[in-house]
Amino acid sequence: MLAPPPPLTPSGDEGRRLLREELLHGEYHRQNVLQRILAWLGRRLDGGIGAASGSSWATTLATMALVALLLIGLVWILSRFRRDRRRRTQAEALLPVDHASAAELRRRAEAALREGRHDAALVDAFRAVAARQVERGRIDDQPGATVHEVAARLAATYPGHGSRVGRTADAFDATMYGHRTASHDDAVDAIALDDALAGAG
Q: What does the pLDDT look like over 145-166, one tens digit per residue?
């Protein structure tokens, strides 16, 4: 015996349940925040124009001024977001555009190690590693490259030291951006890595 076909017109409760299930699908939630804001502004603008057609000139002017202010605010927020993202990218660069020489960075790292400032010693030592390899022409000078981008180039250039480079890059990253305190050994290892790569063919 065949089961009866489903009803063509669902009941009110069944319709609400089907609608809820349909709206759970991912394609309804893929719009980013900017798209949602622009869609909202578009709806407000359409509603404002429709309402203004039967309103006084003062109401129309006020509506247009409000829409203009909203658009200016949106442009300001987006420009600030882009500027902050650019600053964050520059802050995460291993070697700033106007960085010190490898010798100067190494001198600072050794001085920091003697003074017990292990975080500064690790940071300057790994920057010295990168700067020295740029000066030797072993890796390209790419201001703005992150520590892991530089580490990947160093590991490709010196495959025998790849794991050591990776460990030191992770320690740098955790100390610089992860709020982890570097140990004496971390700083010593970073300085020793500079020596190892400087002496490698």
A: 888 888 888 889 899 998 999 9
